[in-house]
Amino acid sequence: MEVDKYAKELEVAVRIVHLACALCGRVQDRLLTMSSDHVMSKDDDSPVTVADLSVQATISWLLSDNFGSQNVSIVAEEDVETISKPDSAGLLEAVVNTVNESLESASKYGLRSPETILGSSKVLEAIRHCNSAGGPTGRHWVLDPVDGTLGFLRGDQYAVALALIEDGKVVLGVLGCPNYPVKTEWLNYHHQRRQTTSQGSSTTPDAWGKGCVLYARRSSGEAWLQPLISGDKILEWPNCARLIRVSSIDDPALATRCEPVERANSDHSFTAGLAHSVGLRKQPLHVHSMAKYAAIARGDAEIFMKFAKSGYKEKIWDHAAGVVIVEEAGGVVTDAGGRPLDFSKGMYLEGLDRGIIVCSGVILHEKLIEAVYASWDSSNL
Ligand SMILES: Nc1ncnc2c1ncn2[C@@H]1O[C@H](COP(=O)(O)OS(=O)(=O)O)[C@@H](OP(=O)(O)O)[C@H]1O
Ligand SMILES: [Mg+2]
Ligand SMILES: [Mg+2]
Ligand SMILES: [Mg+2]
What we know:
globular; 2 domains; five-stranded mixed sheet; seven-stranded mixed sheet
């Protein structure tokens, strides 16, 4: 790959994700202090908030501003269905205000603000613009505006995930984790809750300390971490970015695994069985969102497994950014059959074999794949 290929795309994407993380931080603060800040249920009963919709609109506007609206294809999670319902006027107003408030601060991130305030039709248009189906050819941005919305609502881990796919391959990924904690074990939702209440301190993001933005470009062999910028600081490029690398631990007895918090999202007993059979000894970290990929890429954990219920189809925006960052940091990501994830088939990871296995290295990965085969054989006897 040419040295400078995707350099502009990466720089713009990183700046955009920093801005989006600040947006989310403000909304989460309000949510935690003012009880309700426009949380709605989508048709599939999953939650959507002012933050999900505002981030999607803001990022859509900024990508179009930087690369030209006709050139920008975006595959993203949210649509305008919920916000267009008759009882959503308050939500729409909040989203329009949040988008404009964030875009006003764009120069702090080296980005441009709109010349005039965006009205509701422009904001809806920006959300709607993210309706690309992706596919095997051309360039497609892939966006999860708030991944781990449940974690976001609980004042816990969530992520802003932006990736670029070209001809079916993820070529760059940026992952903002605004609540990434100071101590690795605080990634564990239950630990965190105990920690904050026993100390009598608040559960607001500031109490956790260490937000970050991770990014990587395919085939560079490098993954980078920037601290989240806060207060009045201006984002200098590349703003004290440091290289990150996966953990070198390959002894299962010393390895830490993470998995989704919700049992509905991954089969905890199946992964516990795999963990036991390869000799993992440590308690798993239950972490909302793609902060799990961040934990592997930074070397804070060695394994992340997700086995969704059969019939559930994994979406590309839940994995694209995390996969390229982990791989460039030295890790391995495949399905349970050992094959790479296929981002070329539209919005779903079509053909995924059972589940997703993310490891810091090949030794742990091979052991887990073997364990999947063994346990699948025995469960199908
Ligand atoms: N049934 C089911 N099975 C598997 N996965 C599902 C399911 N339902 C939803 N999702 C997707 O899971 C995304 C959240 O994943 P997490 O790892 O953060 O889950 S958890 O909150 O820690 O349990 C979540 O992403 P967000 O909607 O962006 O939060 C969903 O895309
Ligand atoms: Mg998601
Ligand atoms: Mg989401
Ligand atoms: Mg969602």
